[in-house]
Amino acid sequence: MKLGSHGLARSFVDADEDRARKRGYLRWLPAAGHALDVGCGAGLLLDVLRDAGFAPRGIDSDPVAIAACRARGHEVDEADLHEALARLAAAGERFDAVALVHVI
Question: Is 42 helix (H, G, I), strand (E, B) or coil?
């Protein structure tokens, strides 16, 4: 089984602890709306956002991580982050919250 870069990183992280940490990010976001997770990985933040009432969307380039996100019902663009962001901007897409956790 191919782990991919996100799978390898996840093998060192407790998923419940990571979800709890990500729930803490909600304090900096509006109550709900459309959210974009740039570099969404396997989608733990997308899960947290959806549970909090957001309509989340993700972008990532790792096909293994994207498959995990899509298996849980998330909308995810498989693309280079810069190209995907340029395409979203050109299409006039707007988001109430944008996360770049572990990207910058």
Answer: coil
